[in-house]
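Hi U.,

Before I forget, here's the chain from the pilot set. I'm dumping it here mostly so it's searchable later in email.
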Amino acid sequence: MSETTGEVTPQVLTYGEPPDEAWDVASGVDVRYTNSNHELLEGLTTRRPQLVLCLHAPPQYDGIEAVKTIRRFDAAVPVVLASRVQNTMTNLQAAQTQVTWCVELPADKSVADGLFDVVTDASEWFESQVS
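Structure:
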C-alpha cells in the first residue's frame, strides 16, 4: 500500500519459472514468482493477489494441480493458465478447475520468457486500469 495515497499496489502471483535473463516489470505492479504449491499457498495467504498466473509445463510445473490448490483456498481470485500445450485434455482440466483464462505460450521463446511476456501484459493491463 502506498503510504501517501492509500492506494493498494496490484499484486500478480506467478507460479512458474522466472525468465532466463535479468528481469524487471517496470510498473507499479508487485510481481512475485513461486516455484511450488507450498510457496503458492504462502503467497495467497500473505497478501491476496489480484491475479494468479500459473505455468503448465509438466513435469516441473503442473499448472492444473496449482490451480486446484488455489481453488481449495480461494474460489474467486482470477487465474490465468499459461501453457504451450493447448489440447482437449488440458482445456477440459482447465475448465474443471475453474481457470479464468488460458493463454498459449509461444514456441519460439523459452517457457520462462514466454511466461514473462504474460506477466508483462498483465502488469500493463493493471497499469491501464489505474490511469
